[in-house]
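Fold it.
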Amino acid sequence: MIESTPDDFGRVAAQTARQVIQQRIREAERGAQYEHYSHKVGEIITGIVQSVQANEIIIGLNINAEGKMPRNQQIDKEYYRVHDRIRALLLEVKETSREPQIILSRAHADFLRRMLENEVPEIYQGFVEIRSVAREAGHRSKVAVAALKPGVDPVGACVGMRGVRIQTIVRELNDEKIDVIEWDPDAEKYIAKALSPARVLSVFLERDKDTMPTATVVVPEDQLSLAIGRRGQNARLAAKLTGWRIDIKSLFEAAADTLYSLQNDPQYAYFADLEADNIPLIEAIMSKKAEGRPIQPEAYRELQDFTIRIERGLQQRQEALLQKREARIKAAMEAVPLDAYDLPLMTLALPPRAQKLLEEAEYRNVGNLAIQMLLDKNVIEEINGIGDSYIEAIEEALEVMIGYKPLASDFDVEGTLTRADIPYELWKRRETEDDVEAEGEETEVDAENEIEAETESEAETEIEAEDEVDTQEED
């Protein structure tokens, strides 16, 4: 054995060495803890409650690690005691100068998702998929599931025989109510299912590019409070689950709104003429309801048919208009080459006054001007100072420069269309398609060049061979 301790190694030096060694050991432990738990984020882990504080719970984990469960990640009205065994979702791991900060959660929606994956073999095996989870921890949750294999009942698989599987999860979540519904690709059916246990009469969808898509849901009078839920909980969870803003109305409320729109909203003018004979009957039914007189079942059906007929018709007209607008935008974009957006407006050689007015209106290149002329040239005509003569000059210059031609009447739409109405996705798709075409052209040119080079090389080889033969014959 070789003695390596110096002769002057005293008590202070020994204490310093011990502290350094302990520090290195703690750093190694912290590194091992971070490495171990950073790979388990999103999984359920088990620990022992070590202390309960006002704003968080400290939980002992494996390899001497500690996790924290903040108050907002705890299930409401759930109480813990020291030494209780607890299951939680590993939400986040943060590396700090001391031990890693491990954040746990029992209130997160993914905790319910992982519980279902553990309890339902069909989910683990890939026969059933969880499409969406909406949760208000400790109170109620909604889960949308879909079958990935024909013949599998996704809801039945999650609930289990006599509810055994779902009840296991309910007990773990402190008797939290869980609604399991079947996901549907049809948004109307999906929203109606999401509002269960309420019975839904009809769902009308409204998609607006500037706002969150809205679904107007019509329910019977006696189902209104059930559809909304206590303090709006059922409607709120359904909105989270589906990703739609949900507006719930009773049948009478929906009929009254439709009747008012027929009389005041220009969008409903077309239907006001068609329903002219039915409006007095609907008004009479609404008056009886307002007076508190009994309503016959036939009157309820009349109200329902009236509301659905008009709102569904309006929805179909709006969708048709949207499709025509999209078709016009696409046709306009295809008619303007991307190179046109790199050409300054001055290349059109327009009258100086017209060019100045267009540049002041933010039309600084040929492409922007051309696409607006194709979408709706009225927008250009409305620029103060732009008259018919300037419009003719613009059309002639664009025809010479890029082969401009007005779109066919098949693409005519109601309302105004501007460059701002073109979705960003269409711009990106057009640029991508153009890049692919450019790459294809470059590849073709390269291939042609290679073929020409090979042909020239072969020709040179043949000439050299002929020269060699001639030389040998002369010798």
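The longest strand covers residues 85-94.
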